[in-house]
Specification:
Radius of gyration: 14 Å
CATH architecture: 2-Layer Sandwich
Bound molecules: guanosine-5'-monophosphate, zinc ion
Strand order of the largest sheet: 1-2-3-5-4
CATH class: Alpha Beta
Structural class: alpha+beta
CATH topology: HIT family, subunit A
Distance between the termini: 37 Å
Order of helices and strands: HEEEHHEE
Strand content: 15-25%
Number of domains: 1
Length: 116
Amino acid sequence: MASDCLFCRIVAGEIPADIVHQTATTLAFRDINPKAPVHVLVIPRAHHGDLTAIGAADPALAGEVLAAAAEVAKAEGLTGGGYRVILNSGPHSGQEVFHVHAHVLGGAPLGPMVSR
Ligand code: 5GP
Ligand code: ZN
């Protein structure tokens, strides 16, 4: 655990979160500032800074994060209407929390994939 990492502190139970799904290796909780009717963040329990890092260090765990995102989408009733999974990675993406996380967004039409 990185003690200065917000999401590691959520994993450790030091900061409260509205947890909606968990596995031995992942945790999913509602985003504090939702951008859609459903906005859940899925993280690995282990600290990896971004997709580049987890993809190199533990690609199987990256797959478990994606599988958990699909489970969350199902549990939140998003599979019929569809949903979007976003993994911001690095400065141009606007990533703000440097513990890799998948955003699961849905519950209404989400608009264009990127703004221009
Ligand atoms: P990023 O921009 O790094 O891809 O996304 C970070 C996300 O974390 C943002 O959508 C933001 O609203 C969310 N977030 C930031 N701090 C907290 C927090 O303390 N709790 C929860 N549940 N979400 C947070
Ligand atoms: Zn962390």
